[in-house]
Amino acid sequence: MNRFTWATARTIAEAAAAASTIVADAMTALPETAGPGDGTIVKAGGIDILDLLKENLLVPARVASLRDIPDLDAIVEEADSGCRLGAMATLAGLAAHPLLRQRYPAVTDAAGESASPQIRNLATLGGNLLQRPRCWYFRAAEYRCLRKGGGNCFAIPGENQYHAIFGNRPCAIVHPSTVATALVALGATVDLIDAEGAVRRLSLEDFFLPPERDLQRENDLRPHEILTAINLPPLPTSARMVHLRQGEKDAFDWPLADVAVLLDLSPEGICRSASIVLGAAAPVPHRAKPAENALLGKHIDESTAGAAARAALAGATPLAKNAYKTPLFEALIRRALLKAAAPIVKERG
Amino acid sequence: MINAVSALTGRAEAPDSAAPPSVGPDPLAIAMTVNGAARSLQVEPRMTLAEALRGPLGLTGTKIACNRGACSACTVWLDGVPICSCTVLAVEIGTRRVTTIEGLARGDALHPVQAAFIAHDALQCGFCTPGMVMSCAALVERQPDLTADDVRAAISGHYCRCGTYPHVVAATLAAARTRKE
Amino acid sequence: MASDDKPHAERFPFGIVGAGLGVVTRQLPPDEPPPLAPNADLAVIGRPVPRQNGRAKVTGATRFTVDISLPGMLHGRILRSPLAHAEIHGIDVTAAARHPGTRAVLVVARPDELTGATLRYVGAPVAAVAAVSMVAAAEALRLIRVDYQSLPFVADMDEARNATAPPVFDAASAPAGYASGFPARLNLPLDGNVRGPATDGRGDTAEGFAEADLVVEGEYRTQVQTHCCLEPHAIVADWRADGLTVYMSTQFTAGVRHELAEAFGLPLDRVRVIVDGMGGGFGSKSTLGSYGRIAVALSRQAQAPVRLVLDRQEEQMDSGNRPATWQRLRIGAKRDGSLTAISLVSYGTAGVALGAGVGNVAQALYACPNFAAAQYDVFTNASPGCAMRAPGNAPGAFGLEQAIDELAERLQLDPLTLRDHIDPSPVRREERRIGAERIGWRRRHAPGADPGPIKRGMGVAQSLWGANVQTNSACEVRVMRDGSVEVLSSVQDIGTGIGTVLAQTVAEVLGLHSEAITVRIGDTEFPAGPPSYGSRTTASITPPARAAAWRVLRPLFREAALALNAAAEDMAVRDGRILVRGDSGRSIDFRDAAARLRTDRISAVASRSDDYGGFRWRMADAAQARQDLGGVQFAAVAVDTETGVIRVERVVAVQDCGRPMNPLLIESQVQGGVLMGLSYALFEERILDRHTGRMVNPNLEQYKLAGACDTPAIDVVVLENYQANSATDAYGIAEPANIATAPAIANAVYNAIGLRLRALPMTPAAVLAALGKFPARS
Fold first, then answer.
1. How many beta-carbon pairs under 8 angstroms link B with C?
2. Whole-angstrom Cα distance, residue A96 to residue B81?
3. In 3-state terms, what secondary structure has residue B139?
4. In this predicted model, what pLDDT tens digit does every residue of C506-540 receive, in sequence order?
5. Which sign does the torsion angle of CA B67, B71, B72, B73 carry?
């Protein structure tokens, strides 16, 4: 880890003024010239930042902490019965929040199944959404890959068993955030505030950038902007949501595949709208539009759910070692749809 | 909250309206509450809490095994909540209370989880044990009624290469029963 | 009490408790304690005594090597090769030496003027620095300039076998000595990267296959597994004018002392090796290692103590590993199941080291008159493998035990029925009986019989491991005048709790509680103890502990006899008192007897005698008992045929280790063996990038280990199997418990889905591929 100076921002304005450097930009410097520049990066929980610092993948001159900014971790119910999630809310805080658990169970499930209890106690929502990919070539200083400003992707011809099956050219990372899968499915928006206090609000789906839009950044965060909140839209009472994930191991493992579905069903069980998003599938949370379309106007059963799952995977372009993800996603999508459409059994008080 | 760093050192620049003041990169004095005692120590901003505990504070009971939050061997409590001390910097602890394995027993009286670990042989080489004990003790403190699945979830981030998980679960359930009585 | 200064016949318990315990008469060598009764008749041995150092471990007080800090201590760090195969043409350490924090610089791969220094794997040590802090050491390392010339390399075993593959070694440079794995043979031919074969045989396999009614044939693959000790490899070397003291996380203090004496030209009495807390040893901490040599050389150069601790990436990339293997097995049998021939061909790679065979399970587990094995080592540009928990036999059993199950199915026999027919071991027969009952084997259904996507199955596999003994094992027992007792040996506690077992052994002899015995181990100042590898610690060190305690008791008996006005040979011990046998009214407190001693301290040292029944073989300090260690494991699994996920729901492990000394500690060991086997079966794999030869998952996040949520219910049953071989008749358990798990899971998976997975690890990708759920790609 390189030497850096340390600052503690006490207001969002202070933090934004300090945040001169996006982590992704700091990581594209040539290794020979890599050394503390004059940039300041901001740190929330810092789980990922510390990993990058320890591997010398990131050598900032200054690190500014967001931890002492008041109320940035608040989880607030909005007047329209949507919810506003402060960026500094921890994953553990999200997972345990009673109102969220009741209204947005896909979000609490995704947060509660991320990482380990210890990490969930420190990791923040904002940091989780902004963390860099886990691609093992990206994470090793020895490989100067496309995403670090180099000329090659090493995963496509190399070890790609955990890589993307959609949108995987020329870079095959998968987006590392599981929570993002659920949030994109819900149509969440993100608030970005600059040093003057101006708020830029955009849909989380648009906030994430696929390689064809930006090869080195996974999102549209700009210098001197602070991600302050995620807004969850109000949902009709008829909405059903499910998040499922599958790792090789039962806990503390990055998912091989994760799926979030949000359905709106008529009283007769007919699908009025569907949102299906796949995680660990593509460089950004991957919306399975063909599957969504396949469900509209349909009653959801084994057959329609299976057809939608197959439609979701029709465009997959697996690499040499990750073709197994295709049947795995199919199974998870079908199961998630059937679980979401299953009649709700009222719990006895 | 007053930042412990600037409060102690006085090295911090006067806050201007635009950006917050900085400290470091040279070692600076910070204060920390560890196992109930106020401690002061010198750290560079880049020093992790785990390194600070094991180095300047001499509390080597906390172990570093993976140094990236993947094994939980370095688990300590921050305000009573288990965290990996390798994933947080010493300068950002501030006024939060740190509890390490050395601070769990009350004098000679072991925490029920510690006693149960011995009785159930929930340890072999012992390197993961301090972290494992801290996670299980936090669970028992927070939730008196436990199932085996609760214990497994609480230690799901821990690695034990000797394979003590079954005895850890048995010991923690036993400790929870003791605590209730 | 019989005279014990010459050999005499004694009657010993013999056989399995609950399944034909009998008596055997053996010649007892001179000066050995009398036969020890079965555990049921003992006070301390065989009881579930909690480990003595438990309190220190749960309070964080235990000092591990990584916790040791000496005054003026420096920090060592190693510069490692970024390339899989390279020659160093020049190395410039001037700038590193000039770094203000630097106190010593060492060139490890020294370029010779003619040929350069050849580096053969990513992570090979190049140079090292000792500096005033870890940070300074890392900074100084970055100042070393190395002129590498990259050479063609081969990291994949199959590619390395090709005649056109880049050679890893030439005949002159290739390692040729014994390896830690199996089979260990000298002077085998080297052809390209392929060394061997090491052959074994008996009978005539051609005839055997001709006689067979049925032949099964299969190919099996196992991956590289890394040890993942939670405490990294670590050493603190303190070189001084009057001798060298080394604190090391080691499985063999006495062996490391020998290596240090030889490497640095020191007499043995000037080298001291110490280990207190030892954070996990599974084979890779058996020797001094290059990092150990480097730390000592740095300390000598700097004239100051040097601590060198590998970081997790170094641990994963270059601290040893279990070699990858490929094996082809052919087994011929008669209709009734009798085996007529087994042939085994194996290729394995330990990278730049030797020892990648598949052990001796195919040779020795089942009765078969005709056998032929040819085992090859394949050199690759990968870090050196070494022994890891049951080297050879763990990958070997993965192949053999699936092949036997396949044979049973072809013969339309239950897998247990076939094994009852071909396995000559009465111990495993009993283990199969107990295990089958525990797991509910009668409920086992036909392969793939479950409706729905989740399919359940049960499988069994067997274990075979030699009952190893280190004859160079000694123990001292001291009694002080106040009645306090110490047991001393250089043997190290790597987590098995051997110190507690020694206390139990001595306490049993002296009639005391085990807590009354102070255990001082892990220091070569004490009598040389055995290594903690090869599952030999308990077998080697508990007999001399009992012998030493028994010898030190005799002067106490003499004093007690004088005090009680009785004959010394009529003395016995019970509950802290020395009493007249048959007249418990006449007794004296152990402490009062000790108080009568002529000197403040009496002491006896004993070494490991030969097994009373003789050894199977003996080579230098190592020997093997005539009986093997067994073990049978049953696994119940659930396979999700849509996601490919295998979950192990239950394991029943029925094991034997001679006399179980402490069932609580043994249960821990067996659970550990099962979990390491499960993790090997389902999750773990060192993955090398084929284009660079670099490990892509050198951490504990992407290298996957089983965690608490992956842990099944594990039933442990341990037989009491008396063999009348030593003063304790105790043998090891750690490795036998690790051998059968992966094949038992594989056989259970077959029973669940009707498809055989012949490669490890059995990931969701492998299951979905076997099920044909996605198109195969070239």
1. 167
2. 14
3. helix
4. 999 999 999 999 999 999 999 999 999 999 999 99
5. negative
Q: Are residues B69 and B137 in the same domain?
A: no
Confidence class for position C583, pLDDT limits 50, 70, 90: confident
pLDDT (mean) for A29-50: 79
Cis bond upstream, residue C13 (ω within 30): no
Residues recorded for chain C: 778
Which domains are seen in chain A, by residue range?
Answer: 5-67 (no CATH), 239-341 (3.30.390.50)
Instruction: Judge whether C26 and C440 are in contact, CB under 8 Å.
Output: no
Number of domains in chain B: 2
Residues of B in contact with A53 (CB under 8 A): 46
- What tens digit of pLDDT does each residue of C268-307 get? 999 999 999 999 999 999 999 999 999 999 999 999 999 9
* Cα C59 from chain centre: 28
Q: What mean pLDDT value characterizes chain C?
A: 96
**Residue among C621, C636, C618, C626 nearest C712 (CA):** C636
List the 689-708 stretch of C: residues with Cβ below 8 A of A. Answer: 689-692, 694, 696-697, 701-702, 704, 706-708
Residues B60 and B118 in one domain: no
Whole-number Å distance between alpha carbons of C500 and C124: 39
| Phi, psi angles (nearest 5°) of residue C589 | -60, 140
DSSP C368-431: -S-EEEEEEEE--SSPPP---SSTTHHHHHHHHHHHHHHHHHHTT--HHHHHHHH---HHHHHH
Instruction: Give me the CATH number covering residue B163.
Output: 1.10.150.120
Output the pLDDT for position A32. Answer: 52
Q: Compute the average pLDDT of residues C547-561.
A: 97
- As a whole number of Å, the end-to-end CA separation of chain A is 54
- CATH number at B63 reads 3.10.20.30
CB contacts of B130 in chain C (<8 Å) are: 58, 60
Domain end point (choices B72, B103, B134): B103
- Quick one: pLDDT at residue C181? 56
In 3D space, the residue among B87, B91, B47 whose CA is nearest the CA of residue B70 turns out to be B87
- Chain A residues touching C453 at Cβ < 8 A: 331
Give the CA angle between residues C219, C221, C225 to the nearest 5°: 165
Residue C40's Cβ-side half-sphere holds a number of Cα atoms within 13 Å equal to: 9
Residues B65 and B123 in one domain: no
pLDDT of residue C586: 94
At residue B16, the pLDDT reads 47
> Which residue among B67, B151, B162 places its CB closest to the CB of C495?
B162
Whether C115 has a pLDDT exceeding 70, the answer reads no
Query: ipTM > 0.90?
Result: yes
Structure token digits, residue C318: 């270059």
Domain of B90 in residue numbering reads as 4-103
Q: Do residues C640 and C454 lie in contact, with contact meaning Cβ atoms separated by under 8 Å?
A: yes
Q: Are residues B123 and B172 in the same domain?
A: yes
Residue C656 token pair: 């034997």
Q: Tokens 């049973």 correspond to what residue?
A: C408
For C622-665, the three-class secondary structure string (H helix, E strand, C coil) is EEEEEEEECCEEEEEEEEECCCCCEEEEEEEEEEECECCCCHHH
Q: What would the pLDDT profile of C224-243 be if each residue is shown by its tens digit?
A: 999 999 999 999 999 999 99
Search chain C and give the residue with CA nearest A256: C764
Answer with the one of B80, B103, B126 that is the final residue of a domain. Answer: B103
Q: Are residues B131 and B84 in the same domain?
A: no
Per-residue pLDDT tens digits for C720-774: 999 999 999 999 999 999 999 999 999 999 999 999 999 999 999 999 999 999 9
B14 & B83 share domain: yes
Complete domains list, chain C, with CATH: 65-153+233-309 (3.90.1170.50), 167-172+181-226+321-405 (3.30.365.10), 425-467+624-770 (3.30.365.10), 472-609 (3.30.365.10)
